[in-house]
Structure formats: C-alpha cells, structure tokens
Amino acid sequence: MKIVSPFQVEELIDPLLDVAWSSLNSKDFRMLGEKAQGLFQNKLCSSKELPPTSAINAKDVHGKIEHLIGKAMTAPSIVIVSLVTRGCLYLVRVLRGSHAQQLSGKRKVKVEEDEETTKVCLLNAKKLSAVFKEALKDFMEKRSTHLHPVLFTELILRFPHLGWYLAPDLVNYLENAVNNFRKSQACVMLMQLMSQKTPEHLTHIKDIAPLYKQR
C-alpha cells in the first residue's frame, strides 16, 4: 500500500526531517526520531516512483535543495547530514525525471550524462553545483563546520556529472583546506570522481590536469 503519492513526497521531506532533527537527541522523543529517520530513509527518499516532469516546478525543487543544504550547514550530527543528503539526492532524481530512471532500469547501465540529457531534464546543473560548491567551501575552510564528507561523496557516487563541477575546487583544497583531514578528503573525492567512468571522463581529467601542474 502506498503511503504517499510521488507528488507528495517532496513536500514531506522538510517537515519529516524537522521531526527527526528535534527528536533524535531527546530522551523522551528518541523513539519518534528513530521512526521519522527510518521513514525518511527507507520510504520517502527511496521512492522509485517520480512525478512526471510536466508536474514539477523546477525552480521550487532547486530551492528546496538549496534550503536543505543550508540546513546541513547547521546540522547537529552526521545522522542529520546523511538524512539531508538523502533528501537532496531524491530531489535531484525528481529534476532529472522518471524517463532517465526508466532507461537506467531497462538497460541496467548508467544513463549517459551528456549535454542532451541535461537539456531534456529539468536539472540546472550549474545552478545546483554552485550550491554544493558553497557547501564544499564551508566544509573545507571552516574548522567548526557542521558538514560531513557524505554530502559530497554520495553526490559523486550517484551523479558524477554533477560531482565534476566540484573538481577544480577539490584540486585547490588539496593544499588550501583548513587541516590535513579536509585535505585528505579532497583527495578521496577526486579519486572517487576519477573512478567514475562517465562519457566525459577523459575530458574532465584533461580539464583539471593543468591545475595539478600548478600545485
């Protein structure tokens, strides 16, 4: 039995996240928080049904992703950052559209993330990557950051074509991140990107190669 329709899922992400956020660290409401966490992870953001692109307000969904990442920057724990990550990735899937998902399921291969794919879906890759770049800056430059690597590593794993927008910044953070842990994470993320065999894989590597030489 369906809990909610695909049209309702994106509207429930923020309020359910708030329930988990406020309850998980409370002795009296921890059970409620755990139930909200499980529902968020295993039902809401794992939904395979996506609304048709004709029914999506792309500007609104991009705004929701930006709002969620803003929340992650004040998150009290990696648990909450992980939940935010799941919510963001679900909304990216919504913007890409159900057609791309259906192709992936039928062929059991990665859908090519080329310019044509970008034009067909509602995802504004440059706009969205700018939001993740701002979050990456917070993680790499602030000692007191609330963010965790999972926000970026999951993006790279699931949507490497978006992750490549972070590559020039990651090269910079190999030397200029605030501490050795953040520098090592920049290296991990770059290695993860390079292991993703996307259609533009070699082109991306050639683009960032001059940046390595400047180190």
From TrEMBL:
Main localization (coarse): nucleus
Keyword annotations: Nucleotidyltransferase, Nucleus, Transferase
Record InterPro entries: DNA_pol_V/MYBBP1A
GO cellular component terms, A-Z: nucleolus
Domain of life of the organism encoding this protein: Eukaryota
Subcellular location: Nucleus
E.C. no: 2.7.7.7
Molecular function in Gene Ontology: DNA-directed DNA polymerase activity; RNA binding; sequence-specific DNA binding; transcription corepressor activity
PANTHER family attached to this UniProt entry: MYB-BINDING PROTEIN 1A, MYB-BINDING PROTEIN 1A FAMILY MEMBER
The protein, known as: Myb-binding protein 1A
Protein species of origin: Desmophyllum pertusum
Lineage: Eukaryota, Metazoa, Cnidaria, Anthozoa, Hexacorallia
The gene coding this protein: MYBBP1A_2
